Amino acid sequence: MKPCRGVDPDDFASGASATLCKVFLVPKGERPSVVTYSTGDDTRRPVRWKAAP
Fold it and tell me: 13, 21, 28, 44: which has the highest count of C-beta atoms within 10 A?
């Protein structure tokens, strides 16, 4: 697997955009339904989206 490029933003303002690469591993035979992402230690405002099948 190639390394992901990019840097996580320290602060992500409303209306801002960023392009990141993240790798999520799941057990064999399982499929993710939702991905949740939060920056730094701030888990009060996570971003969520449906995972692609």
Answer: 21
